[in-house]
């Protein structure tokens, strides 16, 4: 069950726990289990997502589901969730377990709402922002909250770090959605246009369709209730790539990252401060 971790990853979520805790009283015996717990939650969501999306690749390798089948993959994901709560309990804080549990519940509720929109391409920007909040920002903000809690920071400082995590998560996911159109399969480790093929419109497409010419061509290909063919998906990806949509989406991500950085002003300065600030640049400039 270690294949997903061997394949690598950014480890952003445990880093957030460690860095935010470093702003206060850093107790490694409590912080390390919390950092491992949030990564286990993230891994569990990836395994289950790949079952739902029937994804063949993750980080350039076969997904757990592709390797051992959907039924066994679901059990692996469940194991990761259970392990996450066991690790969270080692912190000795019931609040850490509660923060993590609330995040998982919000992620699950968001996934249910997302699935109800599959192959319905008319999602507006507000709906998209709600979706990526549940999908990504929820767990990142929980990581910051947990780190602040275990670092014994004041309530105001924890609130600022929570908001930092929200803005960072939104910026991260928008940048990820831009890469889904503009990168290559070798770079991101999964097929280009993955969300589109799975029936979901993301911000680069929405912004591309502000161009009436692009919108007219795309609407001929995107029909609510119908999956795209491989050739049609390639055509939509091409139209989005040739538009200003990805650039405008990345500009939106950059503004959100800047808002995240501003929230650090209200957080206590410490050994992790510079790294937290640097992450706001990394999330919108990365190439995988």
Name the CATH superfamily classification.
Answer: Farnesyl Diphosphate Synthase
The total domain count is: 1
Highest CATH level, the class? Mainly Alpha
Class derived from helix and strand content: mainly alpha
Describe what this molecule looks like in 3D.
By secondary structure, the protein is mainly alpha-helical. It has one domain (3-285): Farnesyl Diphosphate Synthase. Helices cover 73% and strands 1% of the residues. It is built from 15 helices and two strands. It has helices at 3-6, 12-21, 28-53, 64-68, 70-89, 94-116, 125-150, 155-182, 185-188, 194-197, 203-208, 212-221, 230-241, 245-263, 273-285; strands at 57-58, 61-62. The chain has a two-stranded antiparallel sheet. A hairpin with a 2-residue loop joins strand 1 (57-58) and strand 2. Helix 2 packs antiparallel against helix 3, helix 3 (28-53) runs antiparallel to helix 7 and helix 12 (212-221) packs antiparallel against helix 13. The protein is globular, with a radius of gyration of 19 Å. The two termini are 24 Å apart. The model has no long low-confidence stretch (mean pLDDT 93).
Put the structure in a nutshell:
By secondary structure, this protein is an all-alpha fold.
Question: Any descriptors?
Answer:
single chain, 2 strands, globular, mainly alpha, 288 residues, two-stranded antiparallel sheet, Farnesyl Diphosphate Synthase
